[in-house]
Amino acid sequence: MKDEYLTSSVSAWLQRGRMLRYRGRDVYIRVSGSGPALMLIHGYPTGSYDWHSVWMALSQRHTLVAVDMLGLGLSDKPKDFDYSIAQHADLHEWLISSLRLKRLCLIAHDLGVSIAQEMLARRMQDLSLPPIDAVVMLNGGVFPEVYRPRFILRLLSSPMGSLIGPLMSRSAFERSMHPLFGEHAQPSTALLDDFWSLVTYRDGLLVTHLVGRFWKERLRLRNRLVTPLMQRSVPTRFINGISDPNSGQHMANRYAELVPDADVIRLEGVGHWPQLEQPERVAHLALEFLARYETR
To answer: pTM for this one?
Structure first.
């Protein structure tokens, strides 16, 4: 393994959690707070660190549970793993079982939205699984047919991906990040340092093309993933930064079009990471919604 570098902020995040063994791999988890269980499901290409700006506020009302998916963040990044939506969901279900959670709520972002949708689909088929009382979704490909993957994601998902991913430079990564944030909420150099350290940790560039193929799989699973939302199987709020070129205004419009009486909140001037761009507002909107449905 190459020398690993983590920023001081990400190192502090690492120290607040712990490693567990899952199918022979190390996965990073963090659990803290008090109250009803709330699982936070992160996106691509970073990890649970994406929740650092809202963690304190959410933990005042909930016991927070987060895991870095394999191939991402601080967990192992094996080259021989099947980075499918089902496998990512299996990890979260395993953690729910390991922690003996009887019921929970979810907040999910980006790739994590697809994982949450898969978990809801499973519960429509298997009533013995621990109930999910409510879900908050942040920018993600909720309706895959209108998701707009970035050019770099298309390249990484192409046959050239295995060559391009390991050669990605910090400057190229940074150029791909800036357009995802709102015009007046651009990421600081420190945040980009954090992101880059998470992406490159444990030789992450060697698998980023494998992990990033989820958006193609999501299209194949479209009906399975959207059915729980369209049938309103669980109370759901969609908080959407409408300046996100991937899943912004067009995704919010599609959600409102297809889901009866959809709870959609549009955040003006906010991009792909609402929880980082407007953390106080996102935490308030999430907590206010979850309080209606959580079971203590």
So the answer is: 0.96
